[in-house]
Every structure is written in C-alpha cells, then in structure tokens.
Design brief:
11 strands; alpha+beta; 15% helix; Sarcoglycan; rod-shaped
Length: 292
C-alpha cells in the first residue's frame, strides 16, 4: 500500500464519530425494578412490625410464651389455660397448696390405652353424670384403708358403717350376705319383701335383738320358725297367742254351774293350736273340728 492510500484511510476513519454502547436497565424496566424493590422493602418492614407485635402480645421470652414456661421438670402453666385439641401428658399437678381445676362446656374424659391404642380404662365426667370404665374400681382413705371396691365378681364396702339415706331403704334383687344389720339410733329397722318371701339363714344361728323396742314379724300366709337340731325358746314374762280358734267341748265333759273362764292351749296332731275350756281333766283329747 502506498503512502497516499494510508493517509486517505486515516482521514476517513478520523472523520467518522465514535460509537458508545450503553450498559444497564433503562426505561420502563428500570421503573418496574425500583417499584418491586420498594414494595419488597415495605413488606419486610410490615412483616418485621407484625413479628414484633406478636412477640409483644404473646409475651415471648427466653423461658417460654405467655403463661407457658419451660422448666427442667417440664412445662409450667400459670393462670387459666384453654386447650382446643387433646392434651397428652405424663403427669399433671397444680402448685403446692393450690387446687387443680378442670372445666369443660361438654365433658372431661381421661383415657388409658395400651400400645395397640386399645382402651383399657376410661373416666368421663359430663352433663349426664359420672362414668368410669375399667376392670376394677377402688376408693381408699388417706391412710390407705380400702373404703370401696368393685369388679365383675363382687362389690366390697370397707367402711365401718354403710348408711342408706333413701326413704325406701336399700333394695336387693338377689341374696345379701352380712354379719350385722343395724338401724341408726332411735330409728327402726325394717326387713320387707313386698311380693315374695323373706328368708334368713345362718349355719350357727340368727339373733334378733331390740334393746329398747318391739320386734314384729308380719306375713300374709305362714310364719315358720324351724330348728333342725336344737330347740326354739320363747323366753318372756308374758307370751300372748292372739286369735286362736276355740274348740268345742262335749256336754258330758263340761262342768255344771258357773261358766268356765279358764282355757288351756291344745295342739293338734298337725301342729295347729287351739283353745279349749279347762275342766277337771284335760279337754284336749276331745274330738272337734278345729284340727281338721
């Protein structure tokens, strides 16, 4: 290339304007980016303010939240607490010297299940009453003495006295086994079977004692006192046999003169008792229709 050509090319290049290439975001893209950045900052500030407000309202501290405190022994709740879902805990107890109060608008249920989630023991207190379900139910005193026990086989009352305050007393559909039945002081004891018979049995004897009152045995059909190996003793100053039938003595055996006012008690071969006018001899051998 000649010197003139090089000079002409340099003049052409110098006469052209230099080109500038812009780097960055301009126009509507830049405005949208600034808007989103500003919106994000506002959301961050609002979120931070809400977080601080929640921490303030819920009383979050290092030890816990509100009335809930985390201690070495577990969780500690102060004041009233409300649980909207089931509560699972190993032990629940109140402060020393303070009662434990459980309240529910419907019922309070305590369930004990095994590893297979099968119900073993259940305690339900609700508006319909108190229900307990389990193999055995026991009530003990502070000293550990058994007061009440119930299972499928028997019900045991371990207290020294069982009191029934109802006006109708106690009703037993089956047999009752007890060593002692006693009424309260200045109250009467009444054993009654309105529609069936009343049977009292004991291998060594039955003692009926009323130290300050009377004893009455009333039945509709028959009253039987039976002793298989011993005897029946009626020990009293006065024994009265009311409404015994009176036997008719024959005219030959009746004495003349004044009417007899003395009677003797006679026994028929079938065990029936009757009265007969006493004469010079026994009048019980006289045939009459009383023993029929």
């Amino acid at each position: 290339m000649t010197q003139e050509q090089c000079t002409h090319r340099n003049n052409v290049q110098s006469s052209e304007k230099p080109q500038v290439y812009k780097v960055g975001i301009y126009g509507w893209r830049k405005r949208c980016l600034y808007f989103f950045v500003l919106l994000l900052m506002i959301l961050i500030l609002v979120n931070l303010a809400l977080t601080i407000w929640i921490l303030k309202v819920m009383n979050f501290t290092i030890d816990g939240m509100g009335n809930l405190r985390i201690t070495e022994k577990g969780l500690k709740l102060e004041g009233d607490s409300e649980f909207l879902q089931p509560l699972y805990a190993k032990e629940i107890h109140s402060k020393p010297g303070r009662p434990l109060f459980l309240q529910s608008s419907r019922n309070v249920s305590v369930n004990i299940v095994n590893s297979n989630n099968q119900l073993l023991t259940q305690l339900v207190t609700g508006s319909s009453g108190f229900k307990a379900r389990g193999k055995m139910f026991e009530v003990k005193s502070t000293s550990g003495k058994l007061l009440f026990s119930a299972d499928e086989q028997e019900v045991v009352v371990g207290a020294e006295r069982l009191r029934v305050m109802g006006a109708e007393g106690a009703v037993f559909s089956k047999s009752v086994e007890t060593p002692h039945v006693r009424a309260e002081p200045f109250k009467e004891l009444r054993l009654e079977s309105p529609t069936r018979s009343l049977l009292m049995e004991a291998p060594k004897g039955i003692q009926i004692l009323a130290e300050a009152g009377d004893i009455q045995a009333i039945c509709r059909n028959e009253l039987r006192l039976e002793s298989k190996d011993g005897e029946i003793s009626l020990d009293a100053r006065r024994i009265r046999l009311m409404r015994l039938p009176e036997g008719k003595a024959s005219t030959s055996s009746s004495s003349s003169g004044n009417r007899q006012t003395v009677y003797e008690v006679c026994v028929c071969p079938n065990g029936r008792l009757f009265l007969s006018q006493a004469g010079t001899g026994s009048t019980c051998q006289i045939k009459n229709s009383v023993c029929l």
